[in-house]
Amino acid sequence: MTIKKRERFLENLASNLGRPRVQKVERPQYSVSPQQNVYRGYSMDDLMDVLEKQCKAIHTDFINTDTTNLGKILLDTIEGYNGNAIITANDPRFQKYGIEDLFDSLRQDGKEVHVWNSEKGKDNQVFAESADVGITFSDITLAESGTVTLFNDKNNGRSISLLPKTYIALIPKETIVPRMTQAAQIIQKAYKEGHAVPSCISFITGPSNSADIEMNLIVGVHGPIKVTYIAF
Amino acid sequence: MSVKIGNAPFHNRVQDGIENDFMRKAVSSAQGRFRSGRRNAAEELGDWEDWRTLGEEIRSHTLENIDFYLEKLSDAVSNRGGNVYFAQTAEEANQYIQDIVKRKEAKKIVKSKSMVTEEIGLNAALEEVGGEVVETDLGEWILQLDEDPPSHIVTPALHKDKGQIRETFSKKKGYEKTDDPEELALFAREQLREDFLSADVGITGCNFAVAESGAITLVTNEGNARLATALPDTQISVMGMERLVPTWEDLEVMVSLLTRAAVGQKLTSYVTSLTGTRLEGEVDGPEEFHLVILDNGRSKILGTEFQAALHCIRCAACINVCPVYRHVGGHAYGSIYPGPIGAVLTPLLDGYDDHKELPYASSLCAACTEACPVKIPLHEMLIRHRQIIVERENKAPKMEKLMMKGYAKWASSPAAYKLSTKVAKPGLKPWTEEETISNGPGPLKGWTNARDFPAPSKQSFRSWYKSRRKREESE
């Protein structure tokens, strides 16, 4: 696509820096790297504890379970959110963990479960807008900040974790890493290996909030009002 | 339009701030909370100084090679289907964006919070071409409804209380409920949802762009920036030219510093990294994407002793520790960038003429420098500004120049000095009560408005010293 008025702009910058334009720059070795030391040597269980504790700070319900009980816990959570209209990503992991059966039984109970379908275009957004619950898997989970990372694509629309009133993130234990440092490394590595970076990477840390009125914390503004993480 | 807001003289703005009791209370409590949040977040890391060092090194490397990284960024964005426009001035940026809006025949434009679009006065430009612009950040929406400029770069409506906000909502939008913040926010959610769903264009700022891959990263809490980029078919992001990092690994360090320094959060609710247009088969995201990279006076700062001011990541940590901001509030600065960084940056972007007082709006206590997550030597830059204002720009106030001349004459004449120490005590007698002056005359008034001034001593130091020596000699 187009790039306009670049040369004049960049020439001016170089000239103000008192040198000609540079053609090649090596990223330097910085003198310190504190980001590498956070939770170094922590086991998976240690990181799970960090994550659980952080969820309290970000007003997020956290449930630690296993694959056997995942379906039941998810069902309870959906019911807790009065979930009559549910939207999910089109993700093979739902089948892998037996959750598709759960969705079928919900449908039989008269609930609406909409699986993101790229062929249906904007209808997906319309459904998401009036949905009670959005459900996705976390692709990378950051223990330190209590963050789920979503690689949004045509099967995992950005709206699912954004438009419904509540949001449930399913966190496979193996996706848990210490912090954003590791997520950045994974993304950078994929980029270097020639994979296209997703058009949207969402780092989501609990429900939306604001402190814009007299510095009072308001949980639930434009994005979901309540959030639950289920780790298994 | 520029960074400048309002035409009231500096002293009037300061007076307005000082007399605004609610604002001062709000600011001081906000400062307390922001500051302890930042401190806790920093302490938890344990090696905050290393983080600051790393932040400074990344920023300084990026700025030293900014032409190279901007070239890379624009190539990467273009490769992913985006259009890039390099705007030298605010007018060029506005013109380009106006053209898009006209071509798209866009009626409704939703915006997420962005200081840079405030800087260029984009809203007014869009309204000129018939677009309805809706600010969707809660604080910005309140200000837009009330036609008021922001007073803080992170919580822009800090100077308003919930009663005023309720009043605004009811007058402008027919709101009928209470002044409970949760209820007010819920009302905003409902009202703005309609706008998001019907908007033709979404406009955002940019916290950091990743040069290598072309990702535009937005750091937010409310979710409005996600909505503004997921739903409309056209997205325009405007970035100050310095808001970029080389790679993803640099990005995550800067984001970690930003969220901690700004609000004491480990990460905000949403950190959203957007690359180009939506891909084939995707429903959410724009089909047309424009990135506007803005100079607007920034390049003049490159290569000067003030270059590090461009390292700023707009976290407001300096504002949250500043004792002067605490008392006068954001509007007193007359710039959309208030506080210490505003006092450094505003004269650089917009010249000394309208902003020569700002470098003096500081006690030089250096709390700002210490708070800055990328180690910008803010108070040193303020001193340097003062030097330039007096020596190079010759813009010291006339009164001050006159007084300095007078002082030089007086202080170099022993007779004049002696006479003044003698007459000070009797001269101030009418205002003196029990050895203190609580309502002094002339220039003393500025001091005694806030606190007492001790009456001059009966005996001058020189006469005391003389008599003591006499006593010693006679002993």
UniProtKB/TrEMBL annotation, chain A:
Name the InterPro entries for this protein: FTHF_cligase-like_sf (IPR024185), LUD_dom (IPR003741), LutC (IPR022823), NagB/RpiA_transferase-like (IPR037171)
Task: Specify the LUD domain's residue ranges.
Answer: 50-230
- Give GO terms for biological process: lactate metabolic process
Output the superkingdom of the source species.
Bacteria
Q: Which family does it belong to?
A: Belongs to the LutC/YkgG family.
- Relate the protein's function as given in its record: Is involved in L-lactate degradation and allows cells to grow with lactate as the sole carbon source.
Q: What is this protein called?
A: Lactate utilization protein C
The organism named in the record is Oceanobacillus limi
TrEMBL record, chain B:
GO MF assignments: 4 iron, 4 sulfur cluster binding; metal ion binding
Binding of [4Fe-4S] cluster 1: at which residues? C312, C315, C318, C372
Please name the InterPro entries in this protein's record.
4Fe4S_Fe-S-bd (IPR017896), 4Fe4S_Fe_S_CS (IPR017900), FTHF_cligase-like_sf (IPR024185), Helical_ferredxn (IPR009051), LUD_dom (IPR003741), LutB (IPR022825), LutB/LldF (IPR004452), LutB_C (IPR024569)
| Protein family according to the UniProt entry | Belongs to the LutB/YkgF family.
- Where does the LUD domain start and stop, copy by copy? 70-294
Instruction: Give the domain of life.
Output: Bacteria
The keyword Electron transport belongs to this UniProt entry's keyword annotation: yes
Pfam families given in the database record: Fer4_8, LUD_dom, LutB_C
Name the gene behind this protein: lutB
Annotated region (Disordered), positions in chain: 430-475
Q: Where is the Lactate utilization protein B C-terminal domain?
A: 384-469
Single Gene Ontology BP annotation: lactate metabolic process
Q: Provide the protein name.
A: Lactate utilization protein B
Q: Where does [4Fe-4S] cluster 2 bind?
A: C322, C365, C368
Every 4Fe-4S ferredoxin-type domain range: 309-376
Key words, A-Z = 4Fe-4S, Electron transport, Iron, Iron-sulfur, Metal-binding, Repeat, Transport
| Biological role stated in the UniProt entry | Is involved in L-lactate degradation and allows cells to grow with lactate as the sole carbon source. Has probably a role as an electron transporter during oxidation of L-lactate.
